[in-house]
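Reopening this ticket.

The earlier resolution said the output was attached, but the attachment link was broken on my side. Pasting everything inline this time so it's all in one place.
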Amino acid sequence: MKSKLAAAALLLLPALLPVPGFARGGAAASPQTLDDAVAGLVAASGLRPSTVSVAVVDPRDGTLLAGHRAAESMLPASCLKVATTAAAMVALGPDFPLCTRLLAVPPGRGGDPTTVPGDLWLMGYGDPGFSEHGPEGGTLAALDAFVGQVLGKGVRTVGGDLVFDASYFAGPRVHPSWTDAGASARWYAAEVDALTVNDACLDVAAEPGGGPGDPARLSILPETGIVTLVNRVETTGSRADHDIGFRLAAEGNTLEVFGKVGARTSGTRSPAAIHDPALLCAEQVGRALARAGIRVAGFVRRPREGERPPEGASLLAEHRTPLSLACAVANTRSQNLWAETVLRVLGAEKGGEGSFAGGTRAVREVLSAAGPEVGVGLRPVDGSGLSRENRASAVALAKVLGFVWRSRAQEAFFGGLARPGEGTLERRFREKRFDGRVVAKTGTLRSVSGLCGLATGADGRPFCFAVLGEHVDTGKARLLQEGVVGALVGGGR
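Inline output:
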C-alpha cells in the first residue's frame, strides 16, 4: 500500500508544476488542481472515502484550498488538542502563567522572625509543572526549588497547618465518557485538579525478587503515605512474560499492582494514576518542606467550609508554568492531563468555571471568530480528545490552525507542535524534504487516526491541513496523511 500511495502522489505532483498557487519546487497549483491531488490520494489509500475527511486551508486568509468531505463530522482523537490550546493561547496569551502559590501571614508577626504564626496555604491555579515535563525537568527538583523560596525568606517553622485549596477547578475530575479511566489507573486518563504533582501519577517500579516464583520488589516515586500498594507481581524466568498492570480501588488510594517481571532483567517501570491529585500535591509539598528543614506543627488538610487565607497573608513562594510550555507538552507529547489543565484554566479565566463544561464553552466562544465552519463543525466535550463523544470536521480544525496562524500567538503555538523526529512524530516524516517544513499534531484512538498541522511548500507558502479518519485501518490512514503532507511540501521522495 505504501508504494501505491507514494506512486499516486508522484504521478499527481508533476501536473502541478506549471500552475500558479501551489508550492512545489518554486511552482504552485490552483485550488482545483490541489483538490484533484487530494482526491487521487484518497482514492489510492485503500480506505472507504466515507471514512475520511480532508481539508487544506490558506492560513493567510482562511480560504479552503482543497477538501474531501471536509465538513464531515469525525472523531478527532488527540487532534482536538490543537483547538484547546489554540483557544487558550489566543485568549490568554503565550506568557499567561499557570501557578501554584504558598501564602501565609509573614514570619515575625508573632514575634519570631523564623516562624509563620498561623497556617500555610497552598493555592492551586492549574499548574501541572511539578513534573518531568515542567520547567525544572523533574518532580522533586521542582518541589525543592519551590520550597527553597520559603527557606530563602528565613522561615523555619509553620505554627499551624498546611492547608491546600484546589477550588479554582470545579466539577468532576474525570469525564464520565472516559472509559479508560478509574480502575485501570491509566496515566492518560489521570484525574484533573488545580493542584497536581508528577502528572497526577505515581511511577511504579517492579524489580525481580530472589528467583522465579518469588514476589517482585516494588517501589514508587515520589514516595508517599497516601497510597497503599498491594503487590501481586511475580518474578518469572521468562523474558517474554514481562509486564505490570494496575487496579485502583474505587474509594481511597489502594493500588493493586499485578503482572510478572523477568528474573534476569533490571525490572520494569510504569506510571499509575491515583485518586485525589490535590492531596498528593499537598503531601509532596509537605515532604519538600521537611527536606528543607522547615517544620510544620499542624496537619495537611483542606479548607474548612467558608475558610479563606487570613487577612494580611502574603506570597511566600510561587511556581509558574507558562501557558506556551503547557500547550507544547500537550501537543508535542500528546499529554492528556496538560491539555485538560489548559482547558480548565481557560474556562476559569474566560467564563468563571474551571470545569469540562466551562472549558469547552470557552473554547467554542474563542474559536467562533475562526469562521462559521468552526461553529458548526467543532463539538468538544473535553480538552484532550480522549472522549469518543468529541466531534470535529477537518475544515474546522484547519480553520482553527489558520486562525491562530494569523494571531499574535503564531510563533509560540506552532513552535509547540511536534516536528519530524520528535514527540508523536518521532518515527514519521523522516525524509530530508520535511525538515523545517512540517509541524503537526497526531490523533489516535481505536480505529481512529488523524493528523493536522502546518506544512510549508518549497516556495515558502504555508498550508494548514487536517486529515481525519474514523472506522479506518490506522496504518492506511497514516499513509494517506503522509501523502497529503508530501503533496503540500513537494520535492519528490
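Reporter confirms the inline version is readable. The radius of gyration is 25 Å. The longest strand covers residues 228-236.
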